[in-house]
Amino acid sequence: MNGGGTGGGDGGGADGVQIQHSRRLPDFLQSVNLKYVKLGYHYLVSNLLTLCLVPLMIGILIEASQTNPNDLRQLWLHLQYNLVSVIICSAVLVFGSTAYIMTRPRSVYLVDYSCYRPPPHLKVRFQQFMEHSRLTGDFDESSLEFQRKILERSGLGEETYVPEAMHYLPPQPSMAAARDEAEQVMFGALDKLFLNTSIKPKDIGILIVNCSLFNPTPSLSAMIVNKYKLRGNIRSYNLGGMGCSAGVIAVDLAKDLLQIHSSTYAVVVSTENITQNWYFGNKKSMLIPNCLFRVGGAAILLSNKPVDRKRAKYKLVHVVRTHRGADDKAFRCVYQEQDDDGKIGVSLSKDLMAIAGGTLKTNITTLGPLVLPISEQLLFFVTLLVKKLFNSTMKPYIPDFKLAFDHFCIHAGGRAVIDELEKNLHLLPIHVEASRMTLHRFGNTSSSSIWYELAYTEAKGRMRKGNRVWQIAFGSGFKCNSAVWQALRNVKPSCGSPWEDCIDKYPVKIVT
Q1: Which of the residue ranges 12-16, 25-29, 166-170 has the most confident prediction, judged by mean pLDDT?
Q2: Given pLDDT bands bounded at 50, 70 and 90, which one contains residue 56?
Q3: Which of 282, 304, 323, 480 is catalytic?
Q4: Is 244 an active-site residue?
């Protein structure tokens, strides 16, 4: 779980105008946009191997064109006299090809996914939220004012959802209500997924559920097995306490399991439960989650079957995970505990953003060599070398991840999280649009937020074949996890998209 939180003038003119012709040449360093120079350098270095191979291929073609029938006959006789060598080379080639095919990683395809859309009666407006908080009698005036300020600056809109139990006066956060919330979200997302993909529940071989703060017995994964009567030998897993980045962790676990079990479907369900985790105290650092977290969840269908490539939306390219739990500050920056009055909540440290930034740096340092073009890697290396050897005050070069990715799904943990990533990664407003609009429309839905963002990009018609998507999420522990997907076709939104009746209203201007 995460928290976050020009002018111009006109000049006057004279009655008489004198025109003077300047003989000076324009300053090309000022007139030429340097981004095009950088783009040209990127294309040059990225295609360097091709440019080097072209002369070699031309030489081979010229040599082949000068070959006469007598040369071909001599080559055939040479092969006949060295039949043993030919057989050995052929056997080695066949064995090597077979070994490569048998041991190479299986491709993991994202067939489809669905995001839960809560019913309209669960919507909560700011005024309703504040009035309800006041009437519960649990919050003093200072806490109410604090929550009001957080809401106003949060980036959330007026149509987010809170669970049924929170709409009552007084609220009724019981175990039964928490189970009801979990069932509505998980089953709602899964029903839509099975309908859209025509997959039978019995065909599912792997099931992974992640929910950080609600882990009943039997488990959430067992609830799904019982509901859909999944097969008895299903490999089911339930991930708890891993925060908002657990969705990427679940995908990584599914990927590893799909390397072992062939011709298998895996379902990942990412959600969070709010009912039993609403904080009713007055500690400021524990009130922030009340203002940001909202109902949501997603179900994802993965496959390692080659036949599913034709209908799949995406192919999984990379997963990179970073864990800073060995550092005490990082470990405690998102911490579930009791306040002085014994009320349980999740406390967010004032060091959260700094820790998130350091964890992000580590994550992208690992991810960069896997995804960045060679041009960006060379620039980064040369700048680092110059900084170390000659100028220690020189600013480090920040790689341009816009050259590696077409779309960014940054976990909608709060406006501050999105602002910092936009600034530090030098992104444009359109790159963080999906994250901002998801936060505005659905709030922080924890680990499922990156799927609402992907659905937004599809609903806008921006996903093209070959596009690369970077999903990045932060979570307690402290963790930063990245998943990279590649679109296998021009992706259109699936039936029942959470944005299907409101996408034309977006983007909206966020009040700051």
Answers
A1: 166-170
A2: confident
A3: 323
A4: yes
Q: Which of 282, 431, 440, 481 is catalytic?
A: 440
pTM over 0.70? The answer is yes
pLDDT at 424: 87
407 catalytic residue (yes or no): yes
Name residues whose C-beta falls within 8 Å of residue 279's C-beta, 6 or more positions apart in sequence.
286, 287, 289, 290, 343, 344, 345, 346
- pLDDT grade, residue 63 (50/70/90)? confident
3-state secondary structure of 6: coil
Length of the chain: 512
Average pLDDT, the chain: 87
Q: Which of 35-39, 52-56, 350-354 has the lowest mean pLDDT?
A: 35-39
Active-site residue, from 244, 291, 409, 480: 244
- In the set 238, 333, 363, 411, the catalytic residue is 411
Nearest partner of 239 among 259, 265, 257, judged by Cα: 257
Instruction: Work out the burial of residue 428: count CB atoms within 10 Å of its CB; fewer than 13 is exposed, 13-18 middle, 19 or more buried.
Output: exposed
**Token pair for residue 306?**
């080659």
Task: Say how far apart CA 423 and CA 419 lie, in whole Å.
Answer: 6
Does the annotation count 444 as an active-site position? yes
Backbone torsions φ then ψ of 278, nearest 5 degrees: -80, 135
HEC-encoded secondary structure of 396-448: CCCCCHHHCCCEEEECCCCHHHHHHHHHHCCCCHHHCHHHHHHHHHHCECHHH
DSSP assignment of 30-52 equals HHS-HHHHHHHHHHHHHTHHHHH
**Annotated catalytic, 261?**
no
Going from the C-alpha of 73 to that of each of 67, 70, 76, 79, the distances in angstroms are: 11, 5, 5, 10
Closest CA to 108 of 255, 312, 238: 255
Q: Name the one residue in this structure whose structure tokens are 């995970």.
A: 321
Active site residue 323: yes
Q: How confident is the model at residue 19 (pLDDT cuts 50, 70, 90)?
A: very low
For residues 233 and 225, give the distance between their C-alpha atoms in angstroms, rounded to a whole number: 11
Please name which of 466, 468, 469 lies closest in space to residue 453, comparing C-alpha atoms: 469
Q: What is the per-residue pLDDT across 478-497, written as a single tens digit (0 to 9) for each?
A: 999 999 999 999 999 999 99
Q: Give CA–CA dist 51/57, Å, rounded.
A: 10
Helix/strand/coil (H, E, C) string of 320-359?
Answer: EEEECCCCHHHHHCEEEEECCCCCEEEEECCCHHHHHHHH
pLDDT at 49 over 70: no
Catalytic residue (choose from 407, 409, 431, 480)? 407
Instruction: Please enumerate in sequence order all residues whose Cβ is within 8 A of that of 356, keeping only pairs 6 or more positions apart, or say none.
Output: 2, 417, 420, 474, 478, 480
